[in-house]
Amino acid sequence: MLEQTRVSHSVTDAASGLQAKRVVDxxxxxxxxxxxxxxxxxxxxxxxxFETLMRRYxxxxxxxxxxxxxxxxxxxxxxxxxxxxAFANLDRYEPAGKFGAWLARLAFNEALTLRRHSTAAxxxxxxxxxxxxxxxxxxxxxxxxxxATDDPTASKQQLEAAIDALPEVFRTVLVLRVVEDLSGxxxxxxxxxxxxxVRTRLYRAQQRLKVDVARRLRADPxxxxxLSQDRCDRIVSQVFSKVHAVSP
Length: 248
Hints:
Blueprint: H1 2-30, H2 35-43, H3 47-69, H4 72-88, H5 99-121, H6 127-137, H7 143-147, H8 152-164, H9 168-179, H10 184-191, H11 195-208, H12 211-219, H13 229-246
Helix pairs in contact: 2-3, 3-4, 3-5, 3-9, 3-13, 4-5, 4-13, 5-10, 9-11, 10-11
């Protein structure tokens, strides 16, 4: 009898372990699924698929929004709004185009809308004048600081400040093409431009940057305007809260 109990427990434990492994494998396998399958699952209200899509594109959408708004919190707000709009309009997505480009376009438009609203709330604010004043108020770096720094954080901040000082039309293309490392075709699709315009704006952006700044950006572009894990988690959590609140 005792032996039978032990065997029974062993079988039960093995079955539980197998079931747990299947659950883990299932969750892990979501990251391997292509966008189209995740979109179909999301249309069926599969929250794991939607979360996978958000985490896959969080950084790209954040960088697009940040290149327009120049403020971290406002960029985060634009990303949340883009995801909520995407979830509500998934049936309008045409598989002929890349899902990432469709999302990026939504984030781009949400950031523009948010900027217009923030400007309307402060009619006396002149973004171009403010940027010029801020740039003029910033002391010129010494040759040692301009050429290199032993502090990675300071170097990163210098690069981000130099990019922020660019006109928006150049800044957004530079961020997507160099920092996010998208192809010219992908950038054109994200921003609704043609490839020639993308190349022209990228060239002009690089020309406006100092030679040393451009060199350092090419050497280590991928940590610029980085999305922290805490911010990423917060975006996902707040989007789900909003989606669940409006879903029938």
